[in-house]
Fold these 4 entries.
Entry 1:
Amino acid sequence: MKTWRNTIVEKSETCWEAMQGPMDFVIAISGRFKHGKSLEDIAARFGAISATKGLLYWSTTDTAWRTLISDAFALRNSETIESRRDFDAKEVLSGTPLYFMQDDTRSTGLNKYSLSASAPTRGRLVIRIENVTETRFLFLTLFEPKTLLSVHFIDRLGPNSWGYYGLSAVRKGFIDGNAKSFINRGAAFYRYLAGAAGDSEPPLAP
């Protein structure tokens, strides 16, 4: 029987296939957590876009915990910026691309993202998230559309125990000197998914 540790290479290869093309920068984060009793519970956590508001991460610039996301909401479709209630588990598990807006406190204005999911078995959920619009800081374009990508694997390990493995990548964009920031942002999302407080653990990249 495969252990969680022994499946990491397999997941890395699958993540690379999902990313489709060369990347300038990639981080990988893995862990275990207890949260929810069903795959639907985990899917609903991904769909709870508004719950990410106030998410904390460790800022190496400020050497302090600070807010990463100041606003976030689900969208009715890809063509609008009209908000709606959070996505439920059924919508996430449908495999239909879902869209949401997010205000990163290190960029200017709201940014649009797409989220698509697949559940090849009752014990595995795969989520792919990609930026739809460009990310700007004032008049500077930091990232063009479709250049920020993350792929998240969640596997059942026990009745309410889950294994997580994810890759977050930059296809092309402004990454000079920001490697630690990307690591800490990835850790922040993992803690959110696990239901842990943003500042509950020491930063991965102090």
Entry 2:
Amino acid sequence: MSLESAIASLKRGEFVLLFDSAGRENEIDMVVAAEFTTPEHVARMRQHAGGLLCLAIDHSFGQKLGLRYMHDILSNSDSLDSDSKEMIMGLAPYGDRPTFSISINHYQTYTGITDHDRALTINEMANLYKVENNRKKFVSSFKTPGHVPLLIASKGLLVNRQGHTEMSVYLTRIAELTPVTAICEMMDAETYSALSFEKAQKYAKQNAIPFVDGKELIEYAKVH
């Protein structure tokens, strides 16, 4: 499926399946633009993907909000002794640092975990991108810890890291959408592991969802 159809799908508020690479996580994520995310999207990611539903944001947006990576927050915490700090992940087995920051709930949510609550948190983070004093609004509108983990894309996106965080944010950038995405890894209940490339392609075909291979996206980025 071409990149053009993936961009068109995102612009319509529909899903895209995104494969990173066989040499990395070797996983496929369901991706939707955060600005269009509804409770129905969240329910579908929960039922058809089943991994961890996260919110990926552009690096500069994260900086404006005063967000930091979780490994940096923990490394600089006085609450952890040196032994506990040994637990902080450096590089993941696939060679990258994790992009996790804090986890949040919008203040209007109740428990924060329902499809409705998570969709609200995701939507409001996308809306925040266009707010002038978004740091102040962020602090007054969101609570942590919450049920939506934030992922901060690397500076320079695919130049520095080729993960689902960067790839999904890059897709919204070229689609001229708000660079905030809801992403969730696709799992396989039969093998208890990540859904295979072949099964994900079959799911994409059956459900008319564009399938993007990370290699194609990286090549496109090099040219553009």
Entry 3:
Amino acid sequence: MSRPDLNQLITLDILLAEGSVARAARRLGLSPSAMSRALARLRDTLDDPLLVRAGRGLVPTPRAVALRERTAHIVEAAQGLLRPAEVLDLKRLSRTFTLRTSDGFVETFGPELIRRVAAEAPGVRLRFVQKPDRDSAPMREGSVDLETGVVGAMTGPEIRAQALFRDRFVIAVRAGHPVTAMTVAAYTAGQHVGAVRSGSDRNPIDAALAAQGLERQVVVMAGGYSAVLALVRSSDLIATVPERHTAGLRDGLIILPLPFAMDAITISLLWHPRLDADPAHRWLRDCVRAACRES
């Protein structure tokens, strides 16, 4: 079996990115006829037309669409492998990192992370954005550098994950709440407030209850743990929240253990593999891990 011509990967990457023989030729410094011959060789290698005529332009075939992202990742990884290693100068580093986290994570771990980053790399800026779902698309598209959360069914298979800490769910109620001993009967009879969750991942609290033949009554949904706990402070609603994740949000509230069995959850740090070897990104991951240990 003949060895594949790996140079074709670069040609394929640029052709699929541009969707045009002429534009791809300009990027590669080739004549249009040479680019057409390169496309013909790719078609023969892959046994697929890749780009087909549609009016005055070209459109990708289903095989080309499926290959586009994979090819881009392979070429980017290969180029990174062949670059000289960078020496990271934190004092001169000027960069903005976008972190997609819950409001509870920002409240609890954000201050220590900000302090650490400012001390080591004063030119770095952190941008925290809300996390309404677990869709990995923002990391895949590059609009998010880091994310924290529980790895689930919606987490992209290519996403890197490293455990930060284990957390358990607890009950939060206001001081003076009429229920002082949270039995299973009191829990299931009470009115609950929950955090809005988008996507197909099932709420772990309701899943744990259902496994034991139980069900709770969620009468209010809010956009995050901060809003959930704010509603608890001024009502008889019951909130079930991750203990460590919301430590900075629960001042003045009564915390009670769950009256039913439920597994702990693992909060992980998530990022796209294209940033694996980036020295600045690796440093930021270390900072997040250190902030979680210190907080």
Entry 4:
Amino acid sequence: MPQEGKVISSTGRWYQVAINNDPNDIVKCRLPGRFRLKKYDRTNPLAVGDQVMVEINEEDGTGAIQEILERRNYVTRESTHGSHSEQILASNIDRGFVIQSIRKPNLKQGFIDRFLITCEAYDISPVVVINKMDLASDQDQQYAHQLIQMYRDIGYQALTMSIYDEETVSEITELIKDNTSVFIGPSGVGKSSILNTIDPELDLKIAQVSDFNEKGKHTTTHARLHPLEVGGYIIDTPGIREFGLFDIDPVELSYYFPEMIEPGSHCQFNDCTHTHEPKCGVKEAFDNGEIHKLRYQSYRRILESLQEES
């Protein structure tokens, strides 16, 4: 008789599944061919966080996944393999944390904004985290706090932190506690170090950032769901350099910028791109200082990239 479980990791064709969501009852499972990727136009038909029904083989204790239950939500991006297919990074998430570092490697606002667009599209509550503030110069401090205030003004949760600052560690711990969360960010921004500080029992591998190119090394090789002592679960994901948007129409891009929705309702044209058209409510709001310059610039860059791809 099939039993329900949660996918906690995947390595190749095998998946680790926690039966009845019990982290102490793990079964190694395979995915039958009928679920394979071409049918779904995805690089991975099954993601960490998925709830599944599993038939267990009593002879060897392995399982076969019989059904993938409906996802509440998921974090997705465009695959980096040039196939324009979808890669699901994690599913059934309460909070999605986009982690950036102020230095080593340097912060990329475009990565944050692309992640926030995905959260808006797939009903995930996002948190913006700027890490490694212990490395910040005075100028870095000003830039980081400008960004944090910008995102808070829009309505997002956002914070700066350092693993050496107990107050900020406590702040992020409270947000993670008793939820299922995912950490997304480039290699080297400190995702695993943050988790080790929150829960030393995890003992996740970490590596130094290269002094040559200030890029992190991949120490997390595949996504994995970890139970936490404070309660809840965290999905730690491999570092990703770029966050490509999947299935976002350029004409609809501004719908995923909360500060543009109301001004956009005053545009003369329904398909206004908010770049050159006359009587544009978004441009008027920007000119009046109601939309932050950095966000509008980011919108323009993302729009241009989507138009080139379409």
